[in-house]
Amino acid sequence: MVFHGGISLKRTLSLKKKKQIAAALAAAVFVCGGCTGNLKEEQDFRLDISDLTDTLKSDIDLLIICNPNNPTSSAISTADMKKLLTVCRSLGIFVMIDETYIEFAPEGTSLSAVSLVPEFDNFMVIRGVSKFFAAPGLRFGYGLTSNQAFLQTLLTHQNPWSLNSIGAYAGERMLKDTDYIQKTWSLIDSERTRMCTELSGLDTVKIYPAYANFVLVKILKEGLTSFDVFEKAIHQNLMIRDCSSFESLNGEYVRFCIMNPEDNDRLLDVFRSL
Questions:
Q1: pTM, whole model, 2 decimals?
Q2: If you classify domain 179-272 with CATH, what class do you get?
Q3: Whole-angstrom Cα distance, residue 6 to residue 134?
């Protein structure tokens, strides 16, 4: 989660300023001070909505949230997102919610902000097919907002060739492929539950509640670094993420994606060997 000041979406701003904002969004360029804000390890990296809203001020113009979050795999409920949007609306803050990983969310969890689109005009939800549908090369993404004036300005500055006909056709077919969607979600959900259950029984690591297709792991064994664990996985032809380069993750952390059951078993053996 990052927030950035410098541009504003208040209705009192000039049309020129709104166009500048829309142009930046159309180009998908966000230059923000990268930070995890008030995500705290002792709270399992869950966003403290009250803490965040106390931090927000009217000179902050654009709030960008990844939900579920990367790399922590934590998430914000729809109810908490509604509270946040209410405060942001009162302060004139526009919110961009990146739901790239939302399709991986466990069953029974209410996380998506899509249902809030008719109620709030100070935010936009963006999604894509690069993660759940494993199709990053298509460069296919979409967004939802009820702010028609903002949408029209956004479309004005959008690259007219941002999506080719093949990408449009493939994207439409993907979103309608209910068989793939159900099978993929079921595999990720069941394996995520199994991996978290198994790892929770080890005293050398700590895991955090996961809502995406990856799990954040803290290394607890003294003297063992995240790079050590990364190397052990590499020797088994398994690629995991050494999180030492992530800001605000103070300690030894790795992140792994949910794979097929056989590869997950091999990764479990790596963690058991620590």
A1: 0.83
A2: alpha beta
A3: 35
